Amino acid sequence: MPQLVVATLNLHAGIDGWGTPFDVVACCGQLDADVLLLQETWTPEGGEGLASHVATSLGYEAHEVALSGALLLESVEVVGTRWGPINRRKNRSLWVGDAEDLRHLRRARWDKARAGTWGIALLSRLPVRRVETIELGQLARDPAERRSAVLAEVEVGTSSVTVVGTHLAHFTQGSPVLLGRLHRKLPSPGQPAVLAGDMNFWGPPLSLALPGWRRAVRARTYPSWRPHSQTDHIFVTRAVEVISGESVAVGRSDHLPLRARLAVAG
Prior knowledge:
alpha+beta, Deoxyribonuclease I, Chain A, 7-stranded mixed sheet, 6-stranded mixed sheet
């Protein structure tokens, strides 16, 4: 049976909680995935984005979907050894949403921020037969301007597998609505398929909402410095065999990435 490695990682725009950039290419290189699903990618206005930079550096074909405008501060003074400040709202370095709506922030500080887009990406070093974007819409309490999933059919030996990457809103913002919309667009459980990303939800309720799909990896992913919950997931259909799965301690995001080795019937 042909095999592939799928990994998912929330990049937190390539910065830690203080706004200090980390080496995203090295982080993704350590995952060594055939298909890599990224969330919270960052593309500055007039510059190369993280997903494109990773793809160029590591030999991937990239498909990125912008979900929202964003502002990024890359020069926040580090005043401690923690991942970021205790009061993250006051000292945040990444703003997602309408860049004009900064009334409750310290505006002078954000005048120095760089504007860009925040989104998701699917990177593949396997041949890609087709790609599509699944629109999931917007939620009233979600700061993102919209939510989507990116779907690609990739060749694995003489077989093919559909891989879907997404980043759902928090469940308190109504993500079960998005999950229902996504489920209706997914391949049937009898087809070889993988769904991965930051779901902002725990495994058991997700399993109930995705009948015919199962979790490929069970490992705590959030927060990365002391993980107590799994909010990042890789789901597979019954046509996909899970050989191994794990969380990987790389990078300086607030999420740990997941990696799974899978086999597809040829």
